[in-house]
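Progress against Task 2.4 (sequence-to-structure conversion) is shown through the following example record, which the project officer requested during the mid-term review.
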Amino acid sequence: MTPTDARIAAVAAEQFHENGIAATGVDALSRAAGISKRTLYQRFGSKDALIVAAYDSLDLPVYQMFTGPAEAAGPAPRDQLDGLFAQLERMVKLPEFRGCPFSNAAAELADPDHPAHAVVRRHKERLRRWIRMRAREAGAADPERLSRQLMLLFAGAQSQALALRSARPVRDARDVARELVDTAVAGR
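Structure tokens generated for the chain above:
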């Protein structure tokens, strides 16, 4: 992807996350990116291809937005797992918090064959692998199972925090995550 295409994809990702995919038309996208509709179509071919590029451009930055601070929480894998939920708590308190852009996209894209679903799955799997590695390093009896459980908690906490406009669900999820990790490690 050229630097110009990457910039356009990033602008589109921002627009989709702020306004929704269906509510963001090609006119609005081209205006926000400072290009003509014709240029947008020449570069991406279709709005669907731009959707894929937009979410692809978010994948690594969103992943690092959570895992970077989690890894900075300390060298112990348990501290990093706890740090993941601590970072989520910080994020949901921001006035611009709109939930997980990938979950929002998956919910909005009704066609299960839309190519952006592959980007969503890749992003979610990347985060789950990060969790699984820490679960393994912490000594969990079944790191695979613990990673699935923690992903459910993480996603559910994001959703509930958005719906309730409260950080309380994340604090509760963080408590449950600690209990799950303790149980998984003790079961070894």
